[in-house]
Amino acid sequence: MKRSFALAALSLFLNSDSSLAFTGSQSAFLSAAGSTRLSATAVDSDTTFDLTAYLTAKKGPIEAALDASIVSTQKETDKICESMSYSLMAGGKRVRPVMCIAACEMVGGSEDVAMPCAVSLEMIHTMSLIHDDLPAMDDDDLRRGEPTNHVVYGEDVAILAGDAMLSTSFEHVARYTPKDKVSADRVVDVIVRLGKCVGAEGLAGGQVMDLECEAKENATLEELRWIHTHKTAALLVAAVACGAVLGGASDEEVAACEEFGTKIGLAFQVADDILDVTASTEELGKTAGKDLDADKTTYVKLLGLEGAKEEAKRLADEAKAALLNKFDAEKAAPLLAIADYIVNRKN
Ligand code: GRG
User: Is the pLDDT of residue 312 over 60?
Assistant: First the structure.
């Protein structure tokens, strides 16, 4: 019971601006979440961790860093910067930035070291949403509870805003990662990881395979796993691995983060497929039931609703086990709690 309060409060927190997060009954709701006892059933991660407090502490700095990251410096750039900021600041749960910072802190690094990368990750994620919503892709007119970028700015500007946000993400992490705290080698490693997770072995490759499978009558579970390992999990892998690299992790620690990211990234997608059939458009901030209506191959279609729920839980347990293989539960507590949130989220 206590845990479901925490999850609902977390969902509220992650999707509301700071003025909404602590008002009236919502405030009571958040404090009811209080200190959440996280007890992973299949792995030995019994620990007490206040996820709501952790996220409350992270939300302000992340939103401020995102807001400051796109600035028009001349009137000629006003339009494209407005279009970029429109989608970047439209809300969103900020899962990837939080995971990057949590991984950095887990290995002994600090928030400021990971923040430029956290911003880059959210830029990459947001640009992928802008392009995903285009008529040539998923053709959607609602995202994060607002009209999609191309609906407001037109297809031409939306494509260019996505392109600009992608290149700005690389500029941002290279320019602003503190040089006195992180070696140039580690920054290059991070840039390589970000580049890889966007390209043919990441979001873009996963999306192409997704489009190919849409045209197929019966895509297999193996094909679905390939698609989402690349389209969805790759960016979550990059988030935790880059955070760990920036925090000074060893190769073995980074490898544990990669395994965690792959499993929890797939679990994230299974949860997304479940929400497509169980949540409303209002709850999701995007069109609900779209995959179902299109008879798209999803985890729910292949495994059934209960089977998909079991798959999500199995993947989350394996993700947590991978982390606990290398880190003690105290240090890993934020990422373990976020893993639970990812499979139990309401949007
Ligand atoms: C990256 C070059 C390049 C092109 C983009 C369109 C495309 C290629 C890829 C699609 C990527 C995509 C939309 C994957 C789905 C991932 C997913 C489950 C998104 C939802 O993420 P949430 O729930 O969203 O974190 P919020 O709005 O909360 O941030």
Answer: yes
Ligand 1 atom with minimal separation from the 206 CA: 9
- Of 83, 56, 54, the C-alpha closest to 70 is 83
204 lines ligand 1 (CB under 6 A): yes
pTM of this structure: 0.89
Q: Is the CB of 120 within 6 Å of ligand 1?
A: no
CATH topology of domain 53-344: Farnesyl Diphosphate Synthase (1.10.600)
Mean pLDDT of 122-148: 96
Which atom, in ligand 1's list, is nearest to the CA of 134? Answer: 6
State whether the beta carbon of 229 lies less than 6 angstroms from ligand 1.
Answer: no
Give the residue among 52, 55, 64 at the shortest CA–CA distance from 89: 64
pLDDT mean across residues, the chain: 88
Q: What is the pLDDT of residue 40?
A: 35
Distance CA 12, CA 159 (A): 31
Report yes or no: 142 and 281 within 8 Å, Cβ to Cβ. Answer: yes
Is the pLDDT confidence value at 35 over 60? no
CB within 8 A of 3, min separation 6: which ones? 36, 37, 38, 340
* Residue 338 CB-density burial (10 A; 0-12 exposed, 13-18 middle, 19+ buried): buried
Nearest CA to ligand 1 atom 6: 132
Q: Is 247 in the pocket of ligand 1 (CB under 6 A)?
A: no
CA distance 119 to 26: 28
Count the Cβ atoms, other than its own, within 10 Å of residue 25.
8
The pLDDT score that the predictor gives to residue 47 is 54
C-alpha of 152 from chain center: 24
Q: Following DSSP, what letter does each residue of 205-220 receive, concatenated?
A: HHHHHHHHHHTSS---
HSE-up of 36 (CA within 13 Å, CB side)? Answer: 29
User: Which pLDDT band, with edges at 50, 70 and 90, does 48 fall under?
Assistant: confident
Domain segments of the chain as ranges = 53-344
